[in-house]
Each structure stands twice: as structure tokens, then as C-alpha cells.
Design goal:
Structural class: alpha+beta
Oligomer: single chain
Helix content: 25-40%
Radius of gyration: 18 Å
Largest sheet: 4 strands, antiparallel
Shape: globular
Strand content: 5-15%
């Protein structure tokens, strides 16, 4: 049995000289699922390759996307700090990431660019480094089916048309998905996800306005 399996989940992927005496506050109330992931050594974790990513999106099993164990640990530390400093994750997203003074859309869905912001996913899933994970944030709502929690046919077409217009001409391989309501970590601001395979760096810089994900800034 690997040595990591004998450790409390909150010590895994942490150098012994940095082990806390007890479970850190930011991990004290995480779900059993997160405990299992955080308690797995990074060496045991397998990054998803592009064919696997495409298949998960195709069969709508986006619940199978997980963060690398050490990254999930950092994500939980980050969001714990955000809630203390900003009151909520939503406040941070709107004020510090989107810089939107108002959430009122100017027009109909995808009618005006100022109602849309494309940023990196601050804490991407455990995927091949050649895959770039972006989030498209919108001031307007994208309707979900009340029974299934999935996109309606109309909103799916709206999103797909936008993705094709914005990304497909520059990137040969891509997928998009909108998280089920039960999976969303930020509920109050509408968004969907776009994953690009081996995109051009200059295109990314242009489309995100030079954005840098928080995972590269957070200590």
C-alpha cells in the first residue's frame, strides 16, 4: 500500500516538513468526493487526453472532469480566502475578474460583445497541457430545461453559433459545454466552458485580452 494512503487526506501531496498539525480550516468541510481526490497522490492521477475530453463532452458526462489533487487543494485554499476577503466567490468574479459595474445586459443573448467576457478557467481540470480551458461569462441568461437542468434546444443553438463564430475559424479542434446546475461552482453569473486543442498563443492573448488564470498568481 502506497505511503500516501496511510496519511490523512490533508497531508497528501504536501512535503513532510510542511505538514500541518491538524486539518486546515479550508479543508475542514470539503465533500467526501473532494477528500478522495485531495487524498490521492498526484503521481497516481492521470491527466485526460484530448480524445477522452471530447468523449466526456459528447456523452454529457462533464461530472467526470476533476482537478489534479494538488490543484484541487490549492483551489479550496483559494476559494476559502476569497469568501473571507470578498464575502463570496461571485463578488470576486464580478469585481476582480470581469470588472462589470453592472450585470444588466445591453441586449439579447450574444447581441453585444460588452455583455460577454472570455477568460481562462482560473482552476482548470486535470487535462493534457495542450488543451486550453476557457470560460465564457455572460450578463444574459442562457435558458436551462427546468426538468433536466440542461440547456434548452434554443440556448444550445445560441451557444453553438457563438462558439463557431468566435473560435472555430482559428482553432481546428474544440468542444464546449455548460455545466449542469448541480455542478456549477459559481451559480450567480451565467457562463459556459470552451476547451481548445493546441490553439495559437496570439489568438488566446487576443480573445482573453491578455488574461492570466488565478492558478498562476495564487501562492
Amino acid at each position: 500500500m502506497p505511503k500516501e494512503k496511510l496519511l490523512p487526506f490533508w497531508k497528501v501531496n504536501v512535503p513532510p516538513e510542511q505538514w500541518p498539525a491538524e486539518c486546515p480550516d479550508f479543508l475542514s468541510n470539503v465533500s467526501e468526493k473532494d477528500q478522495r481526490i485531495i487524498g490521492t497522490s498526484d503521481e497516481e492521477y492521470t491527466l485526460l487526453a484530448w480524445p477522452e475530453v471530447r468523449e466526456l463532452v459528447r456523452v454529457d458526462r462533464v461530472d467526470k472532469f476533476h482537478r489534479k489533487p494538488s490543484e484541487l487543494r490549492r483551489y479550496r485554499a483559494f476559494t476559502y480566502r476569497l469568501v473571507k476577503e470578498y464575502g463570496s466567490i461571485m463578488n470576486f468574479i464580478v469585481n476582480e475578474r470581469l470588472h462589470w459595474a453592472s450585470m444588466q445586459p445591453k441586449g439579447k443573448p450574444f447581441e453585444f460583445d460588452e455583455d460577454i467576457r472570455i477568460l481562462y478557467n482560473d482552476w482548470p481540470y486535470g487535462i493534457d497541457p495542450d488543451i486550453v480551458h476557457l470560460v465564457v461569462w455572460t450578463k444574459f441568461e442562457l435558458e436551462d430545461d427546468e426538468e433536466t437542468g440542461l440547456c434548452t434546444a434554443e440556448s444550445r443553438k445560441e451557444i453553438n453559433d457563438y462558439v463557431q463564430k468566435t473560435f472555430a475559424a482559428k482553432v481546428k479542434e474544440l468542444v464546449w459545454f455548460k455545466n449542469w446546475k448541480s455542478l456549477k461552482s459559481v451559480h450567480a453569473v451565467e457562463h459556459f466552458h470552451v476547451m481548445l486543442y493546441k490553439p495559437d498563443c496570439e489568438f488566446l492573448k487576443e480573445i482573453t485580452n491578455g488574461d492570466v488564470p488565478m492558478t498562476e498568481k495564487f501562492d
